[in-house]
Amino acid sequence: MSAALTVRAPAKINLNLGVGSIRPDGFHPLATVYQAIGLYDDVSVAEADEWSLAVGTHPRIDVSDVPADHTNIAMRAGRALTSFHGIDRRAAIRIEKGIPVAAGLAGGSADGAATLLALDRLWGLQTSDRDLLALAADLGSDVPFALVGGTALGSGRGEQVEPLEDNGSWWWVVVESEIGLSTPGVYREFDRLLGDRTATEKLMPELRSALVAGDPRWLAQQLSNDLSAAALSLRPDLAVVLADGRDCGALAGLMSGSGPTCLFLCSDARHAADVRLAMTERGYERVTACAAPVAGAHVVTYA
Ligand code: C5P
Predict the structure, then answer these.
(1) Which of 282, 192, 199 has the alpha carbon at shortest distance from 229?
(2) pLDDT in tens, 195-251
């Protein structure tokens, strides 16, 4: 690549994921609290004669399921931005994954958000935040949050994002699964299992207070995920992972989004290192300790 601009975008987790019954458009209404965690994808862009996409390999992450053609969300983001501005420019896009694929961590959404921001800055388009968020929402329900980062309330189908006060310095142990889960598949299982219900905010006041207080033990009692039963129905083995994490001393265990990644809340960095080590000793190979909240998509290099 010639002059390349790199944007880094974080993985997301849902501290509380309230899911309602399916809407006529096929999406589910959500009431959620998002948090950005310290796992990242880097997206690099450079001006080119034709659109192209490359996905770097990673020693830990299986990138074989990431589409390397126009269906990739990064390519869709590039085309959406140029068509919004009515310009005929193209770019070579390169994705370096740090977020596991099909993991319930919104790695694809991070790539979409990073590409929007990277091309906007590369070409000096000065797209307003409002327009970037609208373009992001068209790409996928979790893409606006990947732009915003931090901790935020999500509503609608997840695309409406409002930053929340969060004074915590949180530590999560993230246990990846070798096999991914399809998000639409988990929502289908949710429909089958739970039938009619509405998204609920009933746990939100306590959750929000725990975030303001920055108290891990309080937050541990407020974590919940309505997709958990559906993910466990498709992958009963994950119940063992959740139990192991708690056995290893985590304050609480939680399925990440639609799974299969399992998250364990710890009291601080040292506790997270202990839980990570204990899980490794039990034979888990893909275990990371992550700080949260972290920033949304941001430029890291321009060379
Ligand atoms: O918005 P996104 O493209 O990430 O969604 C992927 C799929 O996940 C959707 O096609 C839909 O099947 C499911 N989904 C849903 N309700 C949401 C978000 C996603 O049913 N709020």
Answers:
(1) 192
(2) 666 665 555 899 999 999 999 999 999 999 999 999 999 999 999 999 999 999 999
Tell me if residue 269 falls in helix, strand or coil: helix
Determine which one of 142, 166, 244, 274 is catalytic. Answer: 142
Write the pLDDT tens digit of every residue in 217-232.
Answer: 999 999 999 999 999 9
pTM as predicted: 0.95
Q: Which residues contact 138 (CB under 8 A, 6 or more apart)?
A: 80
Task: Please list the alpha-helical segments (H only) found in the chain.
Answer: 73-85, 107-122, 129-139, 143-148, 183-194, 204-213, 216-220, 228-234, 238-247, 269-281
Atom of ligand 1 nearest to the CA of 183: 8
Residue of 249, 275, 253, 276 whose CA lies nearest to 264: 253
Structure tokens at 283: 């034979």
- Ligand 1 test: best mutation among 30, 101, 157, 189, most atoms within 8 Å of CB? 157
Cis check: omega of the bond before 184, within 30 degrees of 0: no
- Euclidean distance between the first and the last CA atom of the chain, given in angstroms as a whole number: 10
Using an 8 Å Cβ cutoff, are 84 and 134 in contact? Answer: no
Ligand 1 atom at minimum distance from 108 CA: 4
pLDDT digits (tens, 9 = 90+) for 136-161: 999 999 999 999 999 999 999 999 99
- What is the rounded distance in angstroms from the CA atom of residue 168 to the CA atom of residue 56? 33
Structure tokens given for 83: 């068509």
Determine the 3-state secondary structure of 15 from DSSP: strand
Q: Which long-range contacts (CB under 8 A, 24 or more apart) does 194-201 make?
A: 194/226, 194/229, 194/230, 195/21, 196/21, 197/19, 197/20, 197/21, 198/20, 198/21, 198/29, 199/18, 199/19, 199/20, 199/28, 199/29, 199/30, 199/31, 200/18, 200/31, 201/18, 201/31
